[in-house]
Write a structure and sequence with these properties.
295 residues; TIM Barrel; eight-stranded parallel barrel; 11 helices; 8 strands; 45% helix; globular
Length: 295
Amino acid sequence: MPTVPDRLATPGPHFSVEFMPPRSDADEDILWRSVRRLEPLRPAFVSVTYGAGGSRRERTIRVTQRIQEETTLLPVAHLTAVGHSVAELRQVIGSYAAVGVSNILALRGDPPGDPNGEWVPHPQGLQYTGQLVALARSLGTFCVGVAAYPDKHPRSVDVDSDTRFLVDKIRAGAAYAITQMLFSVDDYLRLRERMCRAGVDVPVLPGLMPITSHARLMRIHELSGQRIPTELADELYRVRDDPDAGRAIGMDHAVRMSERLLAEGAPCLHFYTFNRSKATVDVLAALGMAPALRR
């Protein structure tokens, strides 16, 4: 099976998407409509999240297996350390290997129930993502990616220490990194420069999603702890009672960011879809990377 870096090494521009394991059969129908709509556009890969504390682990494995077996897409399976012993992590990694999935995104994971709560490792588990990367690499020919924060992780003391944690993950064997949701191209460029100064050179994929309302922007800021552009927040606040205007502002911001990211050499645009494809396809169409959807 090709790896994510293999796909990124082919002529671009490239994009990728993230899906969530569905909570119900109805949600699964929505997910598969998005999968089928995006498949002809040939994303470099699609990733499937894991759920806090592995709460939807079985659905993640099942959806990833279906993508592997029933589509032409390259699946990347998320794997989190939170709430799992090393023995359980070995079992999950083995489950991915058994269905032919060899690309993994390794994450420490948020505390279940409260993403901003105290992170407590499992007594027989792992403390750091770098350990999870090393474990996956030791169990087979897995290509492992990791997450990166464009500013810094909310729990990091400062940007320098956050950079050291990222470098440790890459030196443990990670082949690429995907940023948390970006609001500013400059944050992405500063992250890439910090990695360069630290002597690590792997593809860094910017994470994107059109932010179409002030309420959603504030919610994402609350969950991720990332800085948000004052200008974007003000624009969305002014039209908070006009959904169409909010969508237009969010789409314009996403398109302008995407254009500049590609111009600055970003290897791939990674879209957080929340299992909906329309906004992603609309951005890709504006970039000339997809046909426009019929209204």
